[in-house]
Write a structure and sequence with these properties.
This protein is α+β, with helices and mostly antiparallel strands. Helix content is about 20%, strand content about 30%. The protein contains 18 helices and 47 strands. Strands 10-27-26-25-11-12 form a six-stranded mixed β-sheet, with helices on both faces. A five-stranded antiparallel β-sheet has the order 38-41-46-43-44, with no helix packed on it. A four-stranded parallel β-sheet has the order 3-4-6-9. Strand 16 and strand 17 form a beta hairpin. Helix 5 packs parallel to helix 6 and helix 8 packs across helix 9. The longest helix has 21 residues. It is globular.
Length: about 950
């Protein structure tokens, strides 16, 4: 007899469509195996030859956390390039490096959790560095470009599988896992959903990650918008991956569900397919899913749906077809092309904010480069480890020559004297190479511990001089003479052991607090004061040491000396991405920290020819007087210093543009938790004040002329064309921007709204004609009276120029749309959240699964206005669906209260126990309805009968 050759199972057959292969594999998995796939770390199924799989690989601006990789500018810096082609090429490079790194380290994942498409609505958000822009269209154009690069061009197999973060309306770190963003329907559709939608519809997205926060009272991890919006935008099997620890938050911090089985079941049914919780240990998630199945909260079909989506990604990544996968042999890691691309990106990200003729610098300029960031190349939480490094000082040395460049960091140099008269001393350590934190890679760098192999600080008669930097709000770092930062490890001892501040909980920050005629040195990571013990200096609950600060040199004195001897002084100021504005911590002010303002004043007083180079992850308010030249760049990655020097020297004319508004002061900002960009007039779309620098702003070393604007409507599109010409004598890039506004809008619409843009390179005297085609659907707004998009008829102004405020050309077209009609309240009533205006209101969940209701904000009454409500020939009764306790008052236009509806249950019934409460009312014709809610009352709907 002849032995039969084993047949290839269908899921291994590359000739079959993925859907049939997934069906086959699903049928072969046991129920327990399928449940195990729901955790981030899905185990191998050896009997089927299916490997283990991990969702999630951070790669926001380069492969992160897994050791050395090419580091590109922060995402907000990529946003400043306004260059989708560049961002696509960066995505491609990052995808290739992920593949190359995985070939040598299977911890590197291909399900990439990038990019972040949260809109930069509020500049105090701690994670401002992670987003591209405050504008949804600019964000979606760059996110689409990055995901296309990450995905690759092959029609079947993906280089990596990008997941968009963080769904939805997430712009605060303060109470981020318990706060609820109130998002009215217009803001939801016109602003927060738009960046996600346009990116998903472009077809290079594998999934999304829900955010920690709640939206309208409901956690994002059980959001109905995952089903009602996200999954309707594409035919793809999108994979929804939870954020880390968020599934447990549904019970532990948010208290939204009573048990973890209920919470896990609700998240799975809402559309979460992969649970990132409890690190690498899947046992608790597996137990919760199994418990939900046992309790009838889930069915096996629910589990199958989630596993199918994960398998769709794995098949697309070529896991089951290694011979067919065109990306298997990708070896592009730290290539010359990637290094050149990193420099190009850093150059294109630089924005010239002001220039009174000081820049560019002549080749023989004697330059003083000063400031806390002058010799730094900072990384953020989502960076890889630097292979190459370029600081502003190094870049200026390289460009102008070391003999023409002087340097002063501007730190305060101090000694700390103890109550016993001795000084803190950093003991000598054996020569050993410093290693960056996480240089070997870590699946979870939050778990990396501080070093304990170095001796702790002690005290002696002379002590060590420490470099003190105050990063604002009294948060400071102390650096030893050997360049290491004072840090605290798990044993509580203070050592000079860190190459840079960093970590999930930063262990390198302190605060000097006045106490008993001296100062306590409080370690912020532990919250404990420093004390001197027999075994060394440590943080402990024992009696703290009271220190006297002995100043050896003020930073401004060193800066003034360097500035006075130079032709031009470049002050490099900004932030450390791990301090005062980062994930888990919002900023409290736009103001530049006082230490850095001291240095800027000293430089200007010593030398009026001062350039301020801001290297920071977010906007600052600069105050007055301002230096004659100001530039901004985000932390620019490995080539940041070289790029800055080349722009200062004029080798590369600056052409970056601001991706968000820079405000004059904190007084221009709404509350951080106010997500109503329309009602509170946020972002360039609605802001009515005068910004410090407007959205889209950026200067050049040449000038550009705009001419011959034409605009017409036809074929379902707005077609616009105009000429841009380089009127100067250097080749440079211009970012031509096209905006629009509804002239006679029936509701508040944007002052102007970005419709399209293009970055072009033009030689001196060269001109080019730019043509744009905008679908008319892009000019519509969400009409709450219809519950749908509506293109409003009437005049529409087209504006072309160099920024949102620098408008060079205008034209007006007439749109043929759908006229506004009064709300048919007899037929539809009024859903509470569909108001036109409000004050004192919060939108909350109508139920735990779907719908919105409105309630007064804490300590306030709520006012709601619904415009143009048509009562036809008349109504005689109003009925409101209410829960809780309180009173609803109804008035028409500006008139008196016509009906008062009160709900006073005998005992609390819960937030979703709605009761219909009615009253008589006489009204006819068209009126504005005004509602006032008093007390802890939830309003879901108001109906009328004739």
């Amino acid at each position: 007899m002849t032995a039969q050759t084993p047949t290839t199972p269908p899921f291994r057959d590359p000739r079959l469509p993925f859907a049939k292969r997934i069906d086959d594999l699903l049928a072969r998995l046991t129920p327990a195996e399928k449940v195990s796939f729901l955790h981030q770390y899905a185990p191998a199924v050896d009997r089927l030859g299916v490997a283990a799989f991990r969702t999630g690989q951070e790669a926001l601006h380069g492969v992160a956390w897994m050791g050395p990789a090419t580091v590109f500018p922060q995402a907000v810096g990529l946003g400043a390039t306004w260059n989708p082609d560049l961002v696509r090429r960066i995505g491609e490079a990052v995808g290739r490096e992920a593949r190359a790194m995985r070939a040598g380290d299977d911890r590197v994942g291909l399900n990439v959790w990038s990019p972040t498409v949260n809109l930069l609505r509020h500049p105090l958000w701690g994670r401002n560095e992670e987003g591209y822009s405050e504008d949804p269209r600019l964000t979606s154009s760059l996110a689409t470009a990055y995901t296309r690069g990450l995905r690759g061009d092959h029609p079947v197999y993906w280089r990596t599988a990008p997941v968009l973060k963080h769904w939805l309306a997430h712009n605060n770190e303060t109470d981020r896992d318990t706060s609820s963003s109130t998002v009215r329907p217009r803001v939801l559709h016109e602003y927060d959903l738009r960046a996600f939608r346009e990116t998903v519809e472009a077809g290079a997205v594998a999934g999304v990650m829900p955010a920690y926060n709640l939206v309208n009272g409901r956690p994002n991890h059980v959001s109905p918008h995952l089903r009602e919006q996200l999954r309707t935008w594409t035919d793809q099997e999108l994979l929804v991956c939870s954020d880390a620890g968020a599934p447990s938050n549904l019970v532990d911090s948010e208290h939204y569900f009573a048990t973890h089985e209920e919470a896990t079941a609700a998240a799975l049914r809402a559309g979460v397919d992969s649970f990132t919780d409890h690190g690498t240990d899947p046992s608790r998630i597996v137990a919760r899913v199994q418990g939900a199945l046992d309790q009838g909260l889930l069915t096996e079909a629910d589990v199958d749906t989630a596993v199918r989506r994960q398998l769709a990604v794995r098949f697309a990544l070529g896991e089951f077809d290694p011979r067919e996968d065109p990306h298997t042999d990708d070896s592009g890691f730290d290539t010359p092309e990637h290094r050149a691309l990193a420099r190009e990106a850093a150059e294109q990200a630089i924005v010239l904010l002001r220039n009174d003729g000081l820049l560019p610098l002549a080749p023989d300029t004697r330059v003083a480069v000063v400031g806390l960031l002058a010799d730094e190349c900072k990384l953020d939480w989502y960076s890889g480890t630097l292979i190459h490094r370029s600081t502003p000082l190094e870049g200026l040395y390289e460009r102008f020559g070391a003999d023409r460049v002087t340097f002063a960091e501007g730190v305060d140099r101090i000694r700390l004297r103890t109550s016993a008269g001795t000084f803190l001393r950093v003991p000598a350590t054996p020569d050993q190479p410093a290693q960056a934190r996480g240089a070997d890679g870590a699946l979870d760098p939050a778990l990396l511990a501080g070093r304990t192999d170095l001796p702790p600080l002690t005290c002696d008669a002379t002590g060590s001089e420490l470099a003190l930097t105050d990063w604002g709000e009294g948060v400071l770092t102390l650096r030893a003479p050997d360049g290491r930062y004072l840090s605290v490890a798990d044993d509580g001892l203070v050592r000079a052991s860190a190459d840079q501040p960093g970590g999930w909980i930063v262990q390198e920050t302190f605060r000097l607090e006045p106490h008993a005629g001296g100062h306590l040195l409080r370690h912020l990571g532990t919250g404990l004061p420093v004390s001197v013990a027999a075994d060394g200096v440590r943080v402990a609950g024992r009696p703290p040491e009271v220190f006297e600060i002995v100043v050896a040199e003020r930073g401004e004195d060193a800066v003034a000396r360097a500035a006075a001897s130079a032709d031009v002084v470049v002050v490099v100021a900004g932030n450390d991405p791990h301090i005062n504005g980062r994930e888990t911590e919002d900023r409290s002010t736009l103001r530049l920290p006082e230490h850095q303002r001291r240095l800027l004043r000293a430089a200007r007083d010593a030398n009026p020819r001062t350039v301020l180079a801001l290297v920071c992850a977010y906007p600052y308010a600069l105050g007055t007087p301002s230096p004659p030249a100001v530039l901004w760049t985000a932390h620019g990655g490995q080539a940041a210093g070289t790029a800055l020097a080349r722009v200062l020297a004029g080798d590369v004319p600056p052409a970056g543009r601001l991706p968000q508004t820079w405000y004059e002061s904190d007084a221009d900002l709404p509350d951080l938790l106010d997500y109503d960009v329309i009602g509170s007039r946020q972002t360039y779309l609605y802001f009515e004040g005068t910004p410090l620098f407007p959205f889209g702003h950026g200067l050049s070393y040449t000038s550009f002329g705009y001419a011959d604007l034409t605009a017409r409507v036809g074929g379902g599109a707005l077609r616009v064309s105009f000429q841009v010409t380089n009127a100067g004598d250097v080749t440079a890039d211009e970012v031509a921007q096209l905006y629009g506004r509804a002239v006679e809008a029936s509701v508040p619409r944007p002052r102007r709204e970005l419709l399209a843009h293009r970055r072009v390179t033009l030689a001196p005297g060269e001109g080019t004609r730019l043509d744009f085609e905008i679908p008319l659907s892009a000019l519509a707004f969400w009409d709450v009276a219809l519950g749908d998009w509506r293109l409003e008829p009437g005049p529409f102004e087209v504006l072309a120029g160099a920024s949102s405020e620098d408008v060079r050309l205008r034209a007006t077209v007439h749109l043929e749309g759908t006229p506004a009609v009064p709300r048919p309240v007899l037929r539809r009533g009024l859903d509470a959240a569909d108001f036109d205006e409000q004050s004192g209101a919060a939108i909350v969940d109508r139920s735990s699964t779907a719908g919105d209701a409105v309630t007064p904000a804490v300590g306030r009454s709520a006012e709601l206005v619904y415009r143009d409500c048509d009562f036809a020939d008349g109504v005689t009764e109003v009925s409101a669906l209410l829960a809780g306790e309180g009173t609803l008052e109804l008035a028409l236009d500006g008139g008196p209260v016509l009906a008062s509806l009160t709900l006073r249950p005998e005992e609390p019934l819960g937030p979703y126990a709605y009761t219909a409460v009615g009253a008589g009312i006489v009204a006819e014709g068209v009126h504005d309805v005004r509602l006032r809610l008093r007390g802890p009352l939830r309003l879901a709907h108001v109906g009328f009968r004739g």
